């Protein structure tokens, strides 16, 4: 499915993949310096003595890269990726320098809107993996998706 998908095109169980993106330590530190300046995101030495036992990307950095990969993925909902809220967000494993991130999106639910017939809500699970197929981030979110024009 290369073109955009309308609410009417989406069914429970559909899956969409993304390209891969490699994380590096300089990107981890740049993001952290601006948005999450904690030692385990900024300094390899300091990070050794923490829960992470080494430099780890901020979860918000992983979330931002997930969004980038999602927007560029095979999943192209009509009207764009418009979030209506998250039900769940998890970071079961830290993102490290050298990790090769990719995203898989699975459609969990499709609901036409009763009050706005031109759109509906699609519940998706978006999972970010590394090169070893380990889950780095997972969220369940609700997206507003346009219906096919009549």
TrEMBL record:
Domain of life: Bacteria
Record domain MaoC-like: where: 22-128
Annotated Pfam families: MaoC_dehydratas
SUPFAM superfamilies xref list: Thioesterase/thiol ester dehydrase-isomerase
Name of the protein in question: MaoC family dehydratase
Organism: Noviherbaspirillum sedimenti
